[in-house]
């Protein structure tokens, strides 16, 4: 099980739908599907450890896009789990 954390100095800066800047923290876990084909494809596409940086960049992008769909008031009223929807 691997974990990606966006917190502390690695927080995620985003903007709400009304243009206000916000700082998000998030953490999630993932597990690679370990099959020979998946491992070969992962290594071929990303190198030995490059996939972790790619996953982090993709997670930041998805979370930033999701945050842009909410107003600042909506984000403040439900600070935990809001982007789970």
Give the secondary structure arrangement, pairings included.
Elements: E1 2-6, E2 12-15, E3 21-24, E4 26-30, H1 36-46, H2 50-67, H3 72-77
Antiparallel strand pairs: 1-4, 2-3
Structure description:
The protein is α+β, with helices and mostly antiparallel strands. 41% of the residues lie in helices and 21% in strands. Strands 1-4 form a two-stranded antiparallel ribbon. Strands 2-3 form a two-stranded antiparallel ribbon. A hairpin with a 5-residue loop joins strand 2 (12-15) and strand 3 (21-24). The longest helix is centred in the C-terminal third of the chain and has 18 residues, at 50-67. The protein starts with a strand and ends in an 8-residue tail after the last helix. The mean pLDDT is 85.
Index terms:
85 residues, two-stranded antiparallel sheet, 4 strands, alpha+beta, 3 helices
- The tally of domains stands at 1
For the termini, the CA-CA separation is 24 Å
If you compute it from the alpha carbons, what radius of gyration comes out, rounded to the nearest whole angstrom?
15 Å
Biggest β-sheet description: 2 strands, antiparallel
- Beta content comes to 15-25%
Structural class: alpha+beta
Poorly predicted regions: none
Query: What is the count of DSSP helices, taking H or I runs of 4+ residues?
Result: 3
Would you summarize the structure shown here?
The protein has 85 residues and is of the alpha+beta class. The protein has helices at residues 36-46, 50-67, 72-77; strands at residues 2-6, 12-15, 21-24, 26-30. It has one domain (2-78).
């Amino acid at each position: 099980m691997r974990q990606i954390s966006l917190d502390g100095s690695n927080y995620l800066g985003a903007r709400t739908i009304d243009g206000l800047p916000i700082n998000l923290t998030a953490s999630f876990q993932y597990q690679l599907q370990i099959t020979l084909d998946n491992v070969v494809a992962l290594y071929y596409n990303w190198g030995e450890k490059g996939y972790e940086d790619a996953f982090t960049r993709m997670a930041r992008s998805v979370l930033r896009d999701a945050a842009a769909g909410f107003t600042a008031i909506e984000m403040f009223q439900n600070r935990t789990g809001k982007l789970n929807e």
